[in-house]
Amino acid sequence: MINANETQIIRFRIFGLWFPSFVISCILSENVKYYRKFRYVQIMETIQNPKSKIQNLKTAVIGVGSLGRHHARNYAELAREGKIEFVGVCDANEDTARKIAQEQNCDFISNWRSFLDTVEAVSIVTPTETHCEIACAFLEKGIHVLVEKPIARTLEEADLMIKTAEKSGAKLMVGHLERFNPAMVVLRPHVTKPLYFEIHRVSPFPNRSLDVDVVLDVMIHDLDAIQWLVGEDVAVSAIHAVGIPVISDKVDAANARIEFENGAVANITASRIGTEKIRKTRFYQTNSYVVLDYATKFASITSLAPNAVHPLLGISINRLEIKDVEPLRAEIEAFLNSILSDETPPITARDGRRALSLALGVLEKIDTHAKRVFPE
Ligand SMILES: NC(=O)c1ccc[n+]([C@@H]2O[C@H](COP(=O)([O-])OP(=O)(O)OC[C@H]3O[C@@H](n4cnc5c(N)ncnc54)[C@H](O)[C@@H]3O)[C@@H](O)[C@H]2O)c1
Questions:
Q1: CA distances to 157, 178, 276, 359 from 356, in Å
Q2: For 6, which DSSP code?
Q3: Ligand 1 atom nearest residue 93's Cα
Q4: Which residues share a beta bridge with 234?
Q5: How many CB atoms lie within 10 A of CB 80?
Q6: Mind listing the pLDDT tens digit of every residue in the chain (376 residues)?
Q7: What separation in Å is there between the alpha carbon of 41 and the centre of ligand 1?
Q8: Is the dihedral of CA 183, 188, 190, 196 positive or negative?
Q9: How many CA atoms lie within 13 A of 285 on its CB side?
């Protein structure tokens, strides 16, 4: 038998659980409305607008290996939808170029220079060591470029690309794809002031992109993301890092601790010799704990209601609702829309340079650590 007093307590507990969750979801939904003012959200809305008109823009993809073939598929799809003209693909390996051209029903070439007089916008998806030369040739002619990450191998190359784009006025965007992951898109407006990140990005050995190490190939995604979330103007105050080559002759696994001037700290583990695929970021900001899983496209925010009488009664886990758009399609559309609207692309060459600079800083620390551990 439950007496009246106990019924009262049960009611209070149910109300205590329900009411704080209700309050938090109201606050969060208000926050979404407020942050929708941010340009990033506006861009995501624009690119999902099917009425955008870029019909006559002549586009092409250079490098159609493991990632470039997906660029080609997306451009071909956009062309079928009447949004652009897709001139064709280029790959130094003629068999690869022919195969992808057959799949996408377009023309192919094996020397990108032939596109210099025929296209207005290109995706460059070749190995990093070729980015600067190819991008600068197109930018010089005023042709808009979406270049894959990392922007280049060195800061000097990145600077040359930035200068060339500024001189001709062509758009130069860098493909930091994770910014377009639907989980990140829905989470971004809720990010206030992250202070502590735990990040894991692990994948099995890829057998590609071996011209660069795991920091430039893999960790750079998270280096771009933390700088974006902490604030583009917040300087890095310290970097500690360790990394080792295991299978290739370059660093295959690395861990870095990045400290920002505003007190934020990120601990990032990146490996390309794992046994499973992990793409998980967890971070803490005032009054909330955030989980972001790029692989499963999941984002949640755990917080305590401001008026909760006890933590056990006031914890709310808000699983954000994801709009499942292919990130690469969103990225390409954002690039095309920046051309159409003559606006700065959502990921600029300076963003790409900033991520590269951070990655090179991590590599320098890895090198210092290796020299200490294995003195010659
Ligand atoms: N944003 C992401 O998530 C992501 C993921 C994977 C790769 N990438 C980046 O994309 C780029 C390509 O990586 P990948 O994994 O597709 O490599 P890949 O080796 O699979 O493909 C590269 C292709 O470029 C071709 N190529 C090389 N030199 C060329 C040249 N001078 N002209 C024309 N074609 C040329 C090669 O024949 C190959 O087909 C790299 O910069 C890499 O870092 C980005």
A1: 11, 15, 26, 5
A2: H
A3: 37
A4: none
A5: 12
A6: 344 444 444 444 544 555 455 445 544 444 443 443 345 555 555 544 444 455 689 999 999 999 999 999 999 999 999 999 999 999 999 999 999 999 999 999 999 999 999 999 999 999 999 999 999 999 999 999 999 999 999 999 999 999 999 999 999 999 999 999 999 999 999 999 999 999 999 999 887 767 789 999 999 999 999 999 999 999 999 999 999 999 989 999 999 999 999 999 999 999 999 999 999 999 999 889 999 999 999 999 999 876 766 666 678 889 999 999 999 999 999 999 999 999 999 999 999 999 999 999 999 999 999 999 888 7
A7: 29
A8: positive
A9: 14
**Residue nearest ligand 1's atom 18 by CA:** 65
Report the CATH fold assignment for 32-178+329-348.
Rossmann fold (3.40.50)
DSSP strand E in the chain: where? 58-62, 85-90, 107-109, 121-124, 144-148, 172-175, 194-202, 236-244, 253-260, 265-271, 278-285, 288-293, 298-304, 315-319
Residues with CB under 6 A from ligand 1: 62-68, 90-93, 96, 112, 125-128, 130, 148-149, 175, 177, 208-209, 217
DSSP string, 109-177: ES-GGGGTTT-SEEEE-S-GGGHHHHHHHHHHTT-EEEEESSS-SSHHHHHHHHHHHHHHT--EEEE-G
Q: How far from each other are the two terminal CA atoms of the chain, in whole angstroms?
A: 79
Task: Enter the CATH code of domain 179-324+356-370.
Answer: 3.30.360.10
β-strand pairing of 194-202 with 172-175: unpaired
CB 106 within 8 A of CB 76: yes
Between the CA of 122 and the centroid of ligand 1 the distance, in Å, is 14
Residue spans of the domains in the chain: they are 32-178+329-348, 179-324+356-370
